[in-house]
Amino acid sequence: MPNSTPKTMGQQFGRRSWAEPWKIKMVEPLNVISREEREKALIEAGFNTFLLRSEDVYIDLLTDSGTGAMSDRQWAGMMMGDEAYAGSRNFYHLESAVQNIYGYKHIVPTHQGRGAEHLISQAVIKKGQIVPGNMYFTTTRLHQELAGGTFYDVIIDEAHDPANMHPFKGNIDLDKVQALIDKHGAGNIAYISVAGTVNMAGGQPVSMANIKALRALCDKHGIKIYLDATRMMENAYFIQDREEGYANKSIAEILKEFCSYTDAAWMSAKKDNLVNIGGWLAVNDWTLFEELRNLVVVYEGLHTYGGLAGRDLEALAIGIEESVKDEHIRSRIGQVLYLGELLTNWNIPIVQPVGGHAIFLDAKAFYPHLKQIEFPAQTLAAELYLDSGIRSMERGIASAGRDPKTGDHYYPKLELTRLTIPRRVYTQAHMDVVAESVKAVYDARESTRGLKMVYEPKYLRFFQARFERL
Questions:
Q1: pLDDT classification of 15: cutoffs 50, 70, 90
Q2: Catalytic site residue 191?
Q3: Which of the ends of the chain has fewer CB neighbours closer than 10 A, N or C?
Q4: pLDDT one-digit tens code per residue, 137-146
Q5: Is 467 one of the catalytic residues?
Q6: Is 25 part of the annotated catalytic residue set?
Q7: Class for domain 12-60+326-469, per CATH?
Q8: Measured between alpha carbons, how far is residue 76 from residues 67, 81, 97, 450 in Å?
Q9: Is the pTM of this model over 0.90?
Q10: Active site (annotated) includes residue 395
């Protein structure tokens, strides 16, 4: 593989092309149903792509959570599962992998990421405290609110502009943090919630300089920094690619340095860690670890399995070791960049610069004639499915939900439709099909009607809400 970092999957390096660092050993047939059948399926699903049956989907870009392909080593590891209720050897392999790769001292496994979010929120947030963070994530914010906290967005302003080319739009605005300290007092801040690559901003990374500066500010006021490490390998890639002084450092070195500026981390292992289920919490403070180790027994399972089978723990440990390899992450992000370049060349509005795990279509720019309450991002996801059977997801007003105090809709500045690329699953040809479908929907944008919500669940409404065409 060439030493240079690829900018697109099709870019040439001298006389040699760049390709994925793996070969296909098993295939899963895909089903393509007719447009008439897709129309019926979409209506039955209430125009919510989460409610579609997977058998009615052609290319599934709903999420990268648990949808990646495991390696032959991981599948072999599954056969080595130690299913002892307590003290499984697979747990100790996982513990060692997290300690070696991420650098934290103490590990608590959970069944998936939101289990970890729940535990950390219950353990450290006191009712009435605030939790500043670099843009909300749906499940994270809900767990913080259920624990009695209030989330405050302290991401830099550039993150709210899809066209802004700032290389680290996930950065935290230190002036905003200081203003919250001045207003509420450091003692009323539970912790700073930092996401490595900010999902809701378009998969945008945080710079090493920013996390260092945040560490210095928090040390001055005695405030903890907790990291959502779900896509930190991708964040490390962007530091390597964009930040001065890191071009010659490995992904593993960058990841461990970044984590060293934080006090704890939670992980949805279904993303960067290359497994279909699982999560973990990692902390340095023994007292906090003791509290988490007690809570996990109440909500998840014994502290050495956390709701997972031994075989899952083993696949996770191996996945951590594979996910930090430079050639893997270059391939993973290279595929996203390839799709992004195709759409950019066709002048289709997407969040720039392209993030790590997905292409985020700017639904407001697609449908300027639709009011935000007409759910333009949800509409765009429905239209893509109708056109080609591609499943994407909404990241706009439906995902934002309602203010728990007033009951009013949150109106986020970003109204996005996410094309999320699973890891090690699809080929370049699939990306070509996706790009052509997006272009077809974009070309028909002026005649597209919006949606109205006809069913709204109490929590995380975007998962189960139902819509009808206006």
A1: low
A2: no
A3: C
A4: 999 999 999 9
A5: no
A6: no
A7: alpha beta
A8: 19, 10, 17, 48
A9: yes
A10: yes
